[in-house]
Specification:
By secondary structure, this protein is an all-alpha fold. It has a domain of 29 residues. It has 2 helices and no strands. The longest helix is centred in the last third of the chain and has 25 residues. It is elongated and about 70 Å long.
Length: 63
């Protein structure tokens, strides 16, 4: 009835499927971990920026 071609590049198909599953899994993980509330998101980004600025100041003070 239906037969798969023997000459298909199955390694390429496997690579695409694995890559797609990895991307979908990463997106699902980010959605689960990242804050949904915009106020929380803003606070998280501000905290990250302050931490980076503090590290930059420490590095420049050490030189």
């Amino acid at each position: 009835m239906f037969s798969l071609p023997d000459t298909a590049p199955w390694w390429a198909v496997l690579v695409v499927v694995v890559l797609a599953l990895f991307v979908l899994g990463t997106c699902a993980l980010v959605r689960a971990v990242w804050p949904q509330n915009s106020a929380h998101r803003k606070a998280l980004l501000q905290e990250r920026q302050q931490e980076r600025a503090r590290r930059r100041r420490e590095l420049s003070d050490g030189k």
